[in-house]
């Protein structure tokens, strides 16, 4: 229970393959995946995680067939309709990052309602990456900074890592913006345009299980793998504060 990562980011992958292996349509995998989000949220909150960021829909996922995209866009509404009371019970606050203005209005409303209904909660932040892409995120941040330079508010040589970090979609997470641990399920070992800046020194754990098969024990197993890693941040000894 010591050294629980403050911020865990998860690429929830393998819904479609899980369904296919069972002879079910891909959307059955997404449906089951939604239930697993509930389980994992409570598990992470119980472990004392401060921020759980879940990659739910990427800026590239629009390429999928219409019926799948439509189903995915309905999931947030179904998720929050049934789960907000439990989120409140567990003091979990919902946040969302991504280009939400491009989502169907119904999806936007469902997400916004959940953000508002849980706004007063002070426990774990459940941060959904929805229509999120890291390259687009960086471009948007750079555009904002360029505007400030144009307006004479800052000089180019005053742009620091901190400047950049405060113009990314994780800015509201403050000191927890960068995940210590990235988990990807389903055996794929790639980042797929997720948190490119923030993952600079994250530990990556790739699990072979598909997302619909995940549970609290698998989360604990991933955290244990993380705890046995030696984080050096370019130095030689393990960062002491990280051990506490
Ligand atoms: C992850 O599962 C969910 C989303 C990307 C929305 P996939 O739908 O990518 O499942 P696979 O990778 O095709 O099995
Ligand atoms: C990444 O998974 C996006 C989400 C989990 C939301 P994908 O299934 O879209 O990634 P690729 O296509 O395998 O790289
Ligand atoms: Mg996938």
Note down, in words, how this protein is organized.
With 244 residues, the chain is α/β, with parallel strands linked by helices. The protein has one domain: Undecaprenyl pyrophosphate synthetase. 43% of the residues lie in helices and 14% in strands. A six-stranded parallel sheet has the order 3-4-2-1-5-6, with helices on both faces. Helix 4 (105-117) links the parallel strand 3 and strand 4. Helix 1 (15-21) packs across helix 2, helix 2 (26-47) packs parallel to helix 3 and helix 3 packs parallel to helix 4 (105-117). It starts with 6 loop residues before the first strand and ends with a helix. The model has no long low-confidence stretch (mean pLDDT 96). Bound molecules: 3-methylbut-3-enyl trihydrogen diphosphate (2 copies) and magnesium ion. Keywords: Magnesium, Metal-binding, Transferase. Belongs to the UPP synthase family. One of its GO terms (biological process) is polyprenol biosynthetic process.
